[in-house]
Amino acid sequence: MATLLKELPSFSVLLSAYASISAMVMLIRTILNEMVPERMRDYIASKFSELTSTYFSSEFTFFIEDRWQASDNQLFRAAEVYLPTRIGPSSDSLLVGFNDSNEPTAPPKRSIPVNCTIMDDFEGIRLEWTFSSIETKKCYVPNKRYFAVTCKKSARERVEQRYFTYISKEAQVILNKRESLSIYTYDQDCSMWESAVFKHPAKFETLAIEPKLKQFIMGDLDSFGKRKEFFENVGRAWKRGYLLYGPPGTGKSSLVAAIANYLSYDIYDLQFQIVRNDADLRRILTSTTNRSILLIEDIDCSTNVSRGRAQVKEKPEDEEDDEPKSPSAIDPGVTLSGLLNFIDGLWSSCGNERIIIFTTNHKEMLDPALLRPGRMDVHIYMGYCTPAAFRKLSTTYLGIKEAGIKEAKLFGCIDELIESIEVTPAEVAQQLMISDDPKTALEGLIDFLNVKKKKTEEGVVEKEEKTEEGDMIIKDKSPAAPTAEQRQQQKMKRMPQHHEKKGILEKIKTKLPGIN
Ligand SMILES: Nc1ncnc2c1ncn2[C@@H]1O[C@H](COP(=O)(O)OP(=O)(O)OP(=O)(O)O)[C@@H](O)[C@H]1O
After folding, report:
1. 361 CA closest ligand 1 atom index
2. Which of 5, 302, 382, 441 has the smallest C-beta neighbourhood within 10 Å, fewest atoms?
3. Pocket lining: 433 vs ligand 1, CB cutoff 6 Å
4. Domains of the chain in sequence order
5. Looking at this predicted complex, what is its ipTM?
6. Phi (first) and psi of residue 287, to 5 degrees
């Protein structure tokens, strides 16, 4: 010990060493101040302090941004669902509100405000969450939102391997338990999906369609939900495409609502006309969630995927086109191949448990490529009202479970009229709503059907006269009464689709392997 003390430098030596080091530092600082610009000095200082704090800090921070590469970040979504359940007394702020106008007195829902800090515990690990949002300069690019999760460095691996998986599972459980569904519509100005509470009363029980068709659709949906492994084994994306076609008012939208309620899936209602181009479509579609329905209504209104597009393309360039050009509002930049890429192309593998539904009033207008086998798995014709559909409507609207003696005669008359003209379930439902008294409502429906029948017959006669003369002059509306045979012939000419009513099931084309 004594030898060791002897070898230590004396106090005066230490003092002089300190003085010379300080002088050296002062000299270097003066040189740096003189030679290095101030901004550069600040940058070096901040980097130096960042480096030392990272090296010596005992904490680790994960960042979870709202986007991950080209898609929505599913971990971010899970955190959005999970974190509101962890808001406790230690949180200093909270975002509250609701968008369900059906229940204005319900307690508000919770969400996370910007810069709010939330503490969570997992297997003895303390975690601190902070939510941030950075505004972007470009108006069509949404704000960049992210969570920062801080934990002890020693717990980093457990958080990465176990905690984040736990959050995803918890979020799924919360989503499965929620009482209301959401319907999303795309806001092109903010470049994001906006949601509203979806509480549509349509159910399969209230749908007035042929019972066999109903059974088929429900069975198809059931088997789709159970076939995760099947889809994996056959190397296909876990998706199902439905094309609903038929005249307006035959229940296409009601069927979509019934499917959403049956499966408890959210609906993404995409107005195709607002999509700028294929890249835009890709971004929009990759930001939808699993277990959801992508709905594109009136797909024929998009000129780029309608049959006209193919015909226009085939025309020689110098050929005059007498057809007026479609206004740009209905001529989006999305190409058919861009859309098909999502249905069965490479992008179709993005996401799982998805239902894609297209509706159209004019199937014949669609580009054949969209109708080819393997594209839309099931084609469903939603036809005019049939006696069976009318029975369902009378149960739903008038509470008539089975026609008694009183109604039997009226029912017989209605059945006959319904079979002889084209009347939509929407029109029949409208008439049944006129009175709460079943007899009055049914009689009102008979009057309506009789008027419609008369008008239709008059229309046919008028149309035939027009066709013969080849001009557009409106003729006298009072027709010469046609004979029964003539009426039958007129009906056959006028309603080629009417006969399809009876063969609705033949119109269903099932293309998924494994379903017969
Ligand atoms: N098959 C049906 N079963 C029960 N209700 C129906 C049916 N068809 C139509 N309706 C009633 O008529 C209204 C309009 O129907 P819906 O909007 O579903 O028809 P649509 O075929 O989607 O029409 P569009 O092609 O014009 O969009 C609905 O509110 C619904 O109450």
Report:
1. 25
2. 5
3. no
4. 59-179 (no CATH), 195-313+327-382 (3.40.50.300), 387-466 (no CATH)
5. 0.96
6. -100, 20
Q: Mean pLDDT for each 10-residue chunk of the chain (516 residues)?
A: 65 83 84 79 73 70 88 88 84 78 77 87 93 77 86 93 94 82 86 85 91 93 84 77 93 95 92 83 84 89 58 43 40 72 69 87 86 83 93 89 73 91 93 89 92 82 50 34 42 39 40 34
In sequence order, what are the residues at sequence separation of 6 or more whose Cβ sits closer than 8 angstroms to the Cβ of residue 133? 114, 143, 144, 145, 146
What letter represents residue 294's amino acid?
L
CA of 201 to the centre of ligand 1 (A): 12
Distance 181 CA to ligand 1 centre (A): 20
432 lines ligand 1 (CB under 6 A): no
Q: What atom of ligand 1 comes closest to residue 393's alpha carbon?
A: 4
**Residue 251 Cβ < 6 Å to ligand 1:** yes
**pLDDT 10s digits, 119-169:** 999 999 999 999 998 887 766 667 789 999 999 999 999 999 999 999 999
Residue whose Cα lies nearest atom 14 of ligand 1: it is 249
Distance of CA 259 from the midpoint of ligand 1 (Å): 14
Ligand 1 atom at shortest distance from the alpha carbon of 246: 21
Residue 312: count of CB within 10 angstroms of its CB: 14
* Ligand 1 site, residue 303, Cβ cutoff 6 A: no
Taking only the tens place, the pLDDT of each residue in 48-75 is 766 666 666 689 999 999 888 767 788 9
461, 493 in Cβ contact below 8 A?
Answer: no
Cα gap 145→67, rounded to integer Å:
9
Index of the ligand 1 atom closest to the CA of residue 206? 4
**208 phi and psi, to 5 degrees?**
-95, 80
